[in-house]
Design a protein that fits this description.
heterodimer, A: about 110 residues, mainly beta, 5-stranded antiparallel beta sheet, about 60% strand, globular, B: about 120 residues, 7-stranded mixed beta sheet, 4-stranded antiparallel beta sheet, 11 strands
Amino acid sequence: GENVEQHPSTLSVQEGDSAVIKCTYSDSASNYFPWYKQELGKRPQLIIDIRSNVGEKKDQRIAVTLNKTAKHFSLHITETQPEDSAVYFCAASRPSGGYQKVTFGIGTKLQVIP
Amino acid sequence: KAGVTQTPRYLIKTRGQQVTLSCSPISGHRSVSWYQQTPGQGLQFLFEYFSETQRNKGNFPGRFSGRQFSNSRSEMNVSTLELGDSALYLCASSLHRLAGVNTGELFFGEGSRLTVL
């Protein structure tokens, strides 16, 4: 089955600095890579995603890059703000039994220090 | 539009008991999946249901089971509870998740926090 490794597990940055979270996946059939943000005590929510036919996608201060050859993808947050503090989960989605099966990484706890 | 609703939000059980958790998806969503969240283990996939049929299953023992009803509401059951089953159980619904057709954003509920003593 698919295995998604995510690192670092914790990350502290000063407000205004950039943060990068990296993930690798094992199954080359994975074709969709979403990122979810979970604020303390709240539900995970999708913040950005990328399909396997795209190398990079940006949405304001957030960007995701994908290297299919190396089987890794990364989340980049620029000009970090205190409200970016949360746990971030990467995921890899692949076809399985006619449906898409999602495997999540272990999560990265990001702390933005004011 | 109402979000995903999970009940109960909190519950305490003792070892050996069984528990049933409920999930009501967003109206119109036919896919419901379940995840176990524990510190250090992230979100671990339990199973997914679509049109009342289990479509995918994670690597959990047979003590973990689920079902989906005709109105897309889903329940999961854990029998013979163990201390290690203490976790936040998250349910997520999506519109449709056919392979290669739609990626299917997951909409999560707030979870049911289970404590096993």
